[in-house]
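Give me the fold.
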Amino acid sequence: MNPKEEKPFPEEIAEAKRYPNGTVCRIAGHFESNERVPPGAIIGAWKVDAQGNIIGDFIRNPKYDPNRWPPERM
């Protein structure tokens, strides 16, 4: 999928509200909140503005390895 067409899931939008001026990542697989997410499992991210809104295009992670970390859904 073209990164410009990548749309955030509802839970990613909710996560953005918790982290204004940050980023929200799309992660492949499942990790507990206390687990470190390997760089290869991060599919990509969006920037988040001061109001907690996702802004701009989806930024793909060039280190994401879909053969090792298949997404649970796409």
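Helices lie at 10-18.
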